[in-house]
Amino acid sequence: MPKLLLATSNLGKIREYRLLLDDLGYQMITLAEEGLTEGVAESGNSYEQNARIKAITYAKLRRLLTLADDSGLEIDALNGEPGVKSARFAGEAATDVDKVSLLLAKLNGVPWERRTACYKCVIAIATSEGHCNICYGECCGLIAFKTKGKNGFGYDPIFFLPELGKTMAELPLEVKNQISHRGRASQHVRQVLQQLPI
User: Fold this and answer.
1) Measured between alpha carbons, how far is 150 from 143 in angstroms, rounded to an integer?
2) What's the pTM value of the predicted model, to 2 decimals?
């Protein structure tokens, strides 16, 4: 079974990708399982640049087909922030709780109808030769006034989906994977992987 390197240390993302791509004939392995402890600086100015940098770097380093993503939350009332800086919004060592708390503080006093937001995800699939396919996904909703739900990670407890009447963190993982930005981008990833020679 060919290997697909998941170029992330985020356990939530790893869990989701293993469900999203589990039936495509690849053995999904992590950076930790490959003994890769060196990080790759996300120095790009866009999700695509960061995903591409990570995927190509690790693919060449291990000579393995590699999946890397970059994703973020864009809030209209904050002029698109935190955007590409979503993971480091509250500082390099900040927890998910820290990031959510800072975001809610910045939105203090912003009325419901102006709390519109979009989760965006760009996934790069790189071959060991450096060829790269890019896949996109997004999911739009509103930022809740307080956290709700214990599932998910990141900003999921405050990302409210009006059509479901729940935050992303209230959804079972199987439901989240059908509608999330990562789930939608992964639908395109599946097409790319199915076309690659195994």
Assistant:
1) 16
2) 0.93
